[in-house]
Amino acid sequence: MPQNQNQGKAYHDSTKHSYLSVQINPNYVDASTQPIAFKVYPKFYRRVTLNLNNPIHAFIWLTSAVTSEKLYKNTPDKLRVNPSAGALYPTEVYIQIRGIEGMINGIYHLEVENNCLTLIYELIDDGLESYIIPNKSINGFIFLISCVYYRSSWKYQDRSLRYCFLDSGHHLGAIAASAYLHNKDIQLIFDFDKLALNTDLGFENKEFITACAISGKVQDQLVRRLRLKVPFVCGTDYFEANQFIEYSYQVTALHKSKHQKLKQPQFNFDKDKFQQIVWNRRSIRRFRKQFISQENYLYVLQQLEQPIPTESGEDVEIYSVLHRVEGMSPGLYKGTLLLQTGDFSEQTGYLCVNQAIARDCAVTFFFVSDYTNYQTAMQLAGFLGQRIYLGSNYLGIQCSGIGAYYDDETRRFLETTKDILYAMAIGI
Ligand SMILES: Cc1cc2nc3c(=O)[nH]c(=O)nc-3n(C[C@H](O)[C@H](O)[C@H](O)COP(=O)(O)O)c2cc1C
Q: What's an example of a GO molecular-function annotation for this chain (predicted)?
């Protein structure tokens, strides 16, 4: 087994939930102590307010926009285009813009709460390319996703690194959706010098890069590493270090993912409708135990079969447990292949830590993998998860991500030795 797989597996193994572990440590937190979920650079940086009539601004804005505000225990929860485990939003987005008319060539932080771009670094002959695709220069956009891990570890402790990667994958999915709506191709990149970039962007160990998405024209050109360090700015109002998370991130950042050929997906959504879906996407809190049609279920599966635009090809397999799909026997499936017939709804509810959504839905999905690179596999699971949200919402079907499940019991139920990366529920 390669070294990095050991490290990813060691992290995954030591953060498994079981019936007992959840009883002993139910993750109760005092909501009033939640760290702030919006990073803001100091006032003296130059800012560009996003003007939604400008297509470039609209493209950037839709990758991360706040789309709804909900009062939770007297504090407003700002919900976004991207879902997030526990609505804790550990992810931040930075965008390098080069060669775009009307914009200064530079690295910008996307200040989601205030709807603006903060210019944190002006480019001369340097840039992010040297860390990501050496000897190339990109005329266009480089989106970097990072995680301010304490936002999530505040509640989910050691297991939160899993949620950081899944959330990051969802955020990449939100970038892909905005790119699709703005007629742009993107490529996801997971294997690059993340550790050097964390240092040069001044993240200390409190924030870390998980992935990037590039969009634009790639040219052969030497670009230097950043000539200056960006100063550290904390992404939360207070911070508690978790050395296990910092260590686990670092050791899983080091090795390469499996390689595959780059292929772009081809979707044919009605774009006006899809735009509304991206804007209105929400997680369901309770299903009404209704059936969905076979046609709609197969449509959601088809979205998952579309290529993911990346050369990092970890295999993520998806098991479906069908409870309420018209014309299809309830049971455990892999794709459309029936592995075991039966009504397993009570069982999936139990496996997902007694969550009713995993019992009352039409289909419970489980994502499993025997990954080479743990960070990549988890993010690909999140990326596919975003496709399930948008693909099912497009058909009027509701959806929720599920990060809490009993790991080993789920493996036994699926009869797999691979790791369970993520679960999801869809239905009405
Ligand atoms: C990685 C991940 C794990 C999640 N796990 C659960 C879960 O176990 N149970 C649940 O009810 N919702 C879960 N959710 C849904 C979040 O609670 C939801 O995304 C968040 O509250 C924001 O709401 P929204 O998706 O409606 O914008 C999860 C979401 C993500 C992205």
A: oxidoreductase activity
Query: Does residue 353's CB lie within 6 angstroms of at least one atom of ligand 1?
Result: no
Among candidates 83, 78, 184, 91, which has minimal Cα distance to 386? Answer: 83
Among protein residues, the one with the nearest Cα to ligand 1's atom 30 is 85
- Report the residue among 64, 78, 283, 407 best suited for mutation to probe ligand 1: largest number of ligand atoms under 8 A from its CB: 283
In a domain, residue 271? The reply is no
- Stated as kind and residue range, the H or E segment containing 407 is helix 407-414
Spatial separation of the C-alpha atoms in residues 411 and 408, rounded to whole Å: 5
pLDDT tens digits, 271-318? 999 999 999 999 999 999 999 999 999 999 999 999 999 999 899 999
> Same structural domain for residues 225 and 290?
no
For residues 200 and 298, membership in a common domain is answered with no
User: Which residues span the domain enclosing 85?
Assistant: 34-252
Residues 211 and 351 in one domain: no
Query: Contact 59/184 with Cβ under 8 angstroms?
Result: yes
Read off the tokens for 22: 């959840």
Q: What is the mean pLDDT of residues 359-369?
A: 98
Q: What is the pLDDT of residues 227-245, one digit of tens each?
A: 999 999 999 999 999 999 9
Co-location of 75 and 220 in the same domain: yes
Report the CATH number at residue 360: 3.40.109.10
For residues 85 and 179, membership in a common domain is answered with: yes
The stretches of 362-418 forming alpha helices (DSSP H) are: 374-394, 407-414
Tell which atom from ligand 1 comes closest to the C-alpha of 282. Answer: 26
Query: From the CA of 330, how far away is ligand 1's center (Å)?
Result: 25
Confidence of residue 1 (pLDDT cuts 50, 70, 90): very low
How many whole angstroms from 284 Cα to the centroid of ligand 1? 9
In angstroms, what is the span from residue 88 Cα to ligand 1's centroid? 9
Model confidence at 81: pLDDT above 90: yes
Q: What secondary structure letter does DSSP report for 292?
A: B
Domain boundary among 237, 252, 267: 252
**Among residues 252, 270, 295, which one ends one of the domains?**
252
* Domain total of the chain: 2
Residue 81 Cβ inside 6 Å of ligand 1? The answer reads no
Q: Indicate if 181 and 241 belong to the same structural domain.
A: yes
Residues 299 and 414 in one domain: yes
Helix (H, G, I), strand (E, B) or coil at 263: coil
* Contact between residue 358 and residue 402 where contact means Cβ atoms under 8 Å apart: yes
Q: Report pLDDT for 27.
A: 84
